[in-house]
Amino acid sequence: MQATGTLVAALDDDLRAQTDIDFQVYDTLLHVFEAGDSGIKMTELAREIVLSKAGLTALIDRLDKRSLVQRVPDPDDRRSVRIKLTEQGEKVFRSAARVHLAGIRERVTQHLTDDEARVIAEAFERVRLANAGPTRRT
Q1: How much is the pTM?
Q2: Does residue 120 belong to any structural domain of this protein?
Q3: How many folded domains does the chain comprise?
Q4: Containing domain of residue 16, as a range?
Q5: Which of 42-56, 62-76, 122-136 has the lowest mean pLDDT?
Q6: Rounded to 5 degrees, what are φ and ψ at 4?
Q7: CATH number for 33
Q8: Whole-angstrom Cα distance, residue 138 to residue 136?
Q9: Could you give the CA distance from residue 25 to residue 96 in angstroms, rounded to a whole number?
């Protein structure tokens, strides 16, 4: 837990220093980016970034005001909206991704052998799958 907390704080510092977003915003933009052109449902996004519905609504409101994301109607469910990146949001995300990946290389991968990195990745994937309940995406 200490290693994770220290690493996330350092990656957050990198993003804040070199971009105009923090780690939580980066994580949000990452999930929206990965959803592709169709966007992602608010409920799915809340689950992915581990935020309450109210917390996510406030975050999306802030990102919408900055023109990084947009809400669009869900064609499959009129009660739902999907979140999509705007052109500006994709630009910000791609810039932040370069900073984040450089931080991962500097703070993690350069300190591990290829075998160590593989073992760690496999172990965390097993833990993730073991804890991804029926409502969680695997």
Answers
A1: 0.87
A2: no
A3: 1
A4: 2-107
A5: 122-136
A6: -65, -50
A7: 1.10.10.10
A8: 6
A9: 10
